[in-house]
Amino acid sequence: MGPGARPDTTTASVVTSSADRITLPGRAPTAPLRHEPTGVPEAPGLVRRRLNRCLDRFADVRIGAVIAPAGAGKTTALAHWARASGLDVTWWRATSRAGDPVDQVIRGVAEAVHVLAPQRARARGRESLVDRLAEYDGRPVIVIDDFHHVDHPEVGRLLEELLQAGGARLVVASRHEPSLNLARSELPSVVVGADDLRFRQSETEELFATVHGEPLTDQDGWLLTRQTDGLAAALHLFHQATHGAGDQSRRDALLELPDGATFATGYVVREILSGLDAADLRLLRLTAPLETLTPARCSGLVEADCDRRLRELARQGLLRRLPGGYAVARVVRRHLIEELRDELGARAFADHARSCAARMDADGQPAAAVRAYAALGDWRSAQAVLEGDGPTVLADPDLDWVDAPCATGPWQRVGSAVRELRAGHLNAARDLLGSVPPDAPVSLVEIDARLRRTLRIWTDGDLVPGPQWFERLRATVHRPDPLRYAHAGTTADQSLEQRLLHAVECAVAGDLVTARRLAELAPADDLPALVLSGLSVLLSFPGSIDRLVDEAERGGVPWIVRLARGI
Question: Are 202 and 173 in contact (CB under 8 A)?
Answer without folding.
Answer: no
